[in-house]
């Protein structure tokens, strides 16, 4: 068995099938502690399905996985205490204010009342949302919502945070700021598992994996991948691999 | 327990912020209770009738005066012939057509018997039966009156057996006393079922449920967090409706309110559990809505509110054993009108508690954090 001491995520032949469609086909990989792990793939490559299995939202059809030291089948609730998750779809409550959303999630993760207050104040200040604390989240611009969602996903200081296309639809400046937040989370020791289809963002990751048609085709540092395929950018690497996809018509 | 506090806080904030919710909770019930109670009155008043009196005698006139004096009938005109009377029925000018044949008085005096023809529009069978029996009532009493006068016999001799009626528990036969508890039962059921079924599905639709499902929150906590606010609302609704029933319709409160509310509090667990169960397998609010409607319509039509359960065929009566609305209506009526006590109602408590436990188990099993 893999050593969970060094690796905070280990997956072995993790597979998900829907009927006779194999969404995720026996992926095997490890993520080191404190790493920013990029999970690349075209739409429909199986990224979201894979992330949902790792977060305990979806049962794997076969294979094994260990997240933060806990078994994906036997200890899903222990896993949940130790991870944060930000889904592809915005999932804070639009009809609650910024403050109320923070309080709610901090509360259900079991933070103490004093901690909730402190974190809430600090977080609002960090995001520059002082004037918007009592506004409904639905009224915020998308970029702000995404930053708030990320901050809330790590409010309980999880060991790992899973981000599913966190920056899709966000302007370049906000994307840059968002990555600043990812870096500071990683600096605090939080392992970041991020899916994206912005290839410039792939360059920011410590290591990236590339999924094509549900399979993990390659996994290495961006530099190593560029060298291996002798291509100038990650964009070229990605296109080189994804062009052989059967799922993209 | 702390988790629950945050969940409840969130739910209440969302419920009271939802602008469509407050009218649903406060306005709809009043409208429904008041309108339905006035409308769903099965007593027939103002049965319209026309008369073709071919006899034009003193006796026939006397009989017609009896009809005119009755609060149940409303005179719509004297017909010149038989055809006019039938066309009055055809054109819906009247429900009842009374024909008095020529020689009516003569036959009555000579032969000691005479005939009257009643034609009733029977499109609504129930109304027709009632119209007919009211009319027969008037005619029968007139007939015994006549017999007594002409024969000079005391009433006892013409009618050897006399029936005295006493209507227990609802002496004035006030329909509203029967309807208000029934409509209240429907109200709390509908509000509870729809609110709970739609709420969780809404979270599925916007995707917030996914965020909840990656937290370590337990299924039971989550469901209590969803159930409790609606339980509070339903109990409030019940109290609110009962107050309206008491103030506007003067419905009697003969039993213990504590008993009544204890029962409703368990009953609501059945309904809310069912709503949450539905939301477990519905993916969209539309699906949840259809399922909730399907269940509600069956519950209502088979609740005994509109048709007495005793009149249903055997298999349908058995089906009402699993209809919680039927139980609630029975208990509400018993406690309010009869003043039933806990000792008399204990089986009802046992049954509804079993029901509640079953529904809650189904709800918990139906909700999956992982699929």
Please give a structural write-up.
With 249 residues, chain A is α/β, with parallel strands linked by helices. Chain A has one domain: P-loop containing nucleotide triphosphate hydrolases (Rossmann fold, 3-Layer(aba) Sandwich). Chain A contains nine helices and ten strands. Chain A has a six-stranded mixed sheet, sandwiched between helices. A four-stranded antiparallel sheet of chain A has the order 2-1-4-5, with helices on one face. In chain A, strand 4 and strand 5 form a beta hairpin. In chain A, helix 5 runs parallel beside helix 6. The longest helix of chain A has 16 residues. Chain A starts with 6 loop residues before the first strand and ends in a 7-residue tail after the last helix. Chain B folds into two domains: 233 residues, no CATH class; 112 residues, abc type-2 transporter like fold. In chain B, helix 2 packs antiparallel against helix 8, helix 8 packs antiparallel against helix 12 and helix 11 packs antiparallel against helix 14. Chain B has 371 residues and is mainly alpha-helical. In chain B, 68% of the residues lie in helices and 6% in strands. Classes of the chains: A alpha/beta (249), B mainly alpha (371). Chains A and B meet through helix 2, strand 6 and helix 3 of A and helix 1 and helix 9 of B.
Write the layout of secondary structure elements.
The complex is a heterodimer of chains A (249) and B (371).
Chain A: E1 7-18, E2 21-32, E3 36-41, H1 47-55, E4 62-67, E5 70-71, H2 76-82, E6 83-86, H3 98-108, H4 113-126, H5 142-153, E7 160-164, H6 172-187, E8 191-196, H7 199-202, E9 207-212, E10 215-220, H8 222-229, H9 234-242
Parallel strand pairs in A: 3-8, 3-9, 6-7, 7-8
Antiparallel strand pairs in A: 1-2, 1-4, 4-5, 9-10
Helix pairs in contact in A: 3-4, 5-6
Chain B: H1 2-17, H2 21-39, E1 47-53, H3 58-69, E2 73-78, H4 82-90, E3 96-100, H5 104-110, E4 117-120, H6 125-151, H7 155-158, H8 175-206, H9 208-213, H10 219-249, H11 257-281, H12 285-301, H13 314-319, H14 324-338, H15 342-366
